[in-house]
Design goal:
77% helix, mainly alpha
Length: 190
């Protein structure tokens, strides 16, 4: 039987999730319609472009829009090392936002009490394993968001989630930052 505290916590989590989904839809529409404007704004912002870029990554965490094109652009604009720091920091913040949403989803659905009843032994899945947290992020497309939300739902300890996210995020950011820098050099010569 649920206690009043659990019901209050669940109601609060549901409210946060509903607000987050609405915000996600609004942000997705705004970002997809104005990506060229965002790029031009970052380019003209000078040093503030770094801070704006990190904020854009955090916002992209609330959407299903991938951040790789932004990383390529920032690599061409700022160079590979600054782009690596921007993309790594921004995507790590984005991962923490997704983790928080997953944790709220777990609370709202009372997941921890129900996970043992999942089919195919999914309740016994070692989501808190560093190998899972790093390796599953490498799955193209859905890996990073799926791992972030799942880690939140399973209440993986925050520090473990943070460092494993940072490892995989910075490895991926390096690929795209150096790739974007190379493309920027190629196009500036031609």
């Amino acid at each position: 039987m649920d206690t009043p505290t659990t019901n209050k916590e669940r109601s609060q989590s549901i409210s946060i999730l509903v607000f987050s989904v609405l915000l996600m839809v609004i942000l997705a529409v705004l970002v997809t319609q104005d990506m060229n404007y965002i790029r031009a704004f970052i380019e003209k912002a000078g040093p503030w472009g770094v801070i704006i870029s990190i904020a854009v990554y955090a916002v992209l965490g609330l959407t299903l829009i991938p951040s790789e094109p932004l990383t390529l652009f920032i690599g061409a604009l700022f160079g590979p090392y600054i782009a690596l720091l921007i993309a790594g920091t921004g995507n790590t913040l984005s991962a923490l936002v997704e983790y928080y949403l997953g944790k709220r989803l777990g609370i709202a659905t009372n997941f921890l009490e129900r996970k043992e009843k999942l089919p195919w032994g999914l309740g016994k899945l070692r989501v808190d394993s560093p190998l899972f947290l790093i390796g599953a992020r490498m799955v193209p497309g859905v890996g990073p968001k799926l791992v972030s939300v799942t880690a939140g739902v399973y209440h993986v300890p925050l520090f473990r989630y943070f460092w494993t996210s940072a490892v995989s995020v910075f490895m991926g950011a390096a690929l795209f930052a150096f790739g974007g820098s190379g493309l920027g050099s190629l196009f500036s010569k031609g």
